[in-house]
Structure formats: structure tokens, C-alpha cells
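Hi,

Apologies if this is the wrong queue. I'm a grad student, and the batch job for Alpha-galactosidase from Aspergillus glaucus CBS 516.65 produced an output file that my downstream script rejects. I'm not sure whether the problem is my script or the file. Here is the sequence I used:
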Amino acid sequence: MNETVIFDAARRIVDLGSKDLGYKYVVMDDCWSAGRNSSGYLVHDKKKFPNGIAHVAEKIHELGLKVGIYPSAGSMTCARYEGSLGYEQKDADVWASWGVDYLKYDNCYNEGQGGTSKLSFDRYNAMSKALNSTGQLIVYSMYNWGVDGPWNFAPTTSNSWRTSGDLINEGLDCKLPGYHCSIMNVLDMAAFMPSKAYAGAWTGLDLLRMFTNSLWTAVKSPLMMSNIMTQIDPQTLSILPNPAKGEIQLYSGSLSSGDQVILLLNAGTKTREMTVSLAEIFWDEGVKDTAAQAAKRNCSVVGVTAHDGAEKVYSDVSSSSYKHLMGSKIGSVGPRGAVKATVRPHGVAMYKLREQKRDEL
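Support response: The file is valid. Your script probably expects a header line. Output copied below for reference.
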């Protein structure tokens, strides 16, 4: 990881159209620092970043993007570079002076300051206060691996928080804090946390993996790519920005546009015909609009709408998929009706429901 890698990634985000889809943070991970100076402030590695981090931030800002940086809430980072525990204000001040916009705050070498929600809260809240005192708007992402139930204290301390260890296809599967977890394990936990998140405070399900975009979008997790952007191929590119992608699960929720997003997940090993009624889709509408009332709606079934600039990203996608990706109407469902979809093994079907007005029927 060095200045060239960061600049190349930033330029590719712009050139490939990912910026237009909402990807706007370029986050440097571990291994960027060279310890502290005699005044106790962090300094960058001059071989990796010969022009300094402030220069990196300036160039990334010129592209219309924002820059993030990585420390750990411990005596060392996970790669054993200088940690930020006990240096919260000094570190926040220097990042603000460099023009940093995003902080990925890990949990390695935490000196035993964990084990209860109060201990973890105090440790992460120290950085929250330090960041706020700088006056610089810095998105604060807590990477504490879901230890001590961050969903109970992180919403008022940070902008996003991890619920588990890093994702992996197989392994210990969350047997120990910080160890690898399967996608289904992480998703099952997230399904019970929707009430913990709100605008500006999000449940984070780790970096994107192949075909997790739709799932992460449905539970409103931040989307973070970890690809080598200079080597990305058209197929992967079309999947990454595409939010349209027990064994059968339904995820449903309202969108700011007034539409309702629905996602059908087939975690089994065989293709399934899946059906979900409007009553099931709108079951948690609450006092504002009960499920029974919502089930009487006439709705259009719409492909998940892509942002401006998506035509460039989806230029290599087959025409049969294009209609779903670009937000076109692909069906309708009447009062007390149901949405049906054929879902492949370990796959998802994702749509939006849009209420039809009388003059549209």
C-alpha cells in the first residue's frame, strides 16, 4: 500500500463510474505510518507516501472523492504499527490537519479494555469526542468486531459499527471475537438489528464479497469495496455497484423515495420458486399504515434503480439483465396479491414495490 496504489484506485473509481453510483471514500488501511515524532504525533511512512498524507487527501478531493485512514483503538494496529489508545486527541488533530474524511477504527491490541459494554464504550467514545473537537467532519466507523454489543452504544458514538469479525467462506465462523464469520452468520445477526440503526448511524457488515451487495443494501449496511481497482473485470464491475441482486428469507423495508425494497434470499442448494404476499412485505408498517391496509395496494414491481452514470458501468451486462438494473417496471401486483420470483441456489431476487396511483391503473 502506497501513494501510487491509492491514486490509481481513486482514478479508477471515477473512470469506471463507481463515483456516480455513490462510492466516494478511498480508505487507506493499515501500514501507512512510521510511528510517532518527538511530540507524540503520528507520522506517515515517507517511502510509501513521499509527498505526505495531506497531499494524498488534496489530490483525492480534486477528483470529487473523500479520503479515509486506519488506526486501532489499542497500543498497536493489527499489523503492529503505532496504535491510538491514549493518543486519541493528538491523532484526531493530525488527521484533521491532513484533511482526512473517514476513520476506520479497529480493535487490535486493546490492552484488555473490553469485556463489558462500558469498557468498550469508553474506549471508542474517547475517539468520538476527539474527532468532534477537531471541527472537521470525519465519518467514524467502529471496527470492534461486534464485541460487547456495539449496537447498544455505537449509534450515539459512531456513524457505523461492525457486528462481527471479518467475512470468510469457511473457518471458525465467529467462534471467537475478531475471528472469521460466514456471510449467513453475519446476515442472520443483522436481521435482528434494524431498529438499532438510523440515518447517520449504520450497522456495518464488513467489506463486500461477491454477491453480497443486495444483502448488504437490504439491511442498509455501508458498501465498501476491497478490490484491486486496476484489475477489475467487467463481470465483477457489473456486480459490485448492483444492489439488484432458515434457507428462505425475506428482507423488506421502506426507502426515502416512498418505495418498498424487498429481497428474497435462497440459502439452499436448489433453485426455488419463492412467493411473498403484500401482507408479509408490509407486516411491520406499524401505526402509520397497518399490514392489512398496505396489502390492499396496487403496486408496480420495479427493478432496483441505478444512479446517474450507471449506463457506463452496466455497458457489458446482458440485455436481459439491463431492464432489472435500470429501474424499469417489470411487473405488477394487485390488492392482497403476492410477488413471485425464481431464485437460484445461494442467490437473491431484489425488487422495489411502487404504489400505483389511480390514473396509472
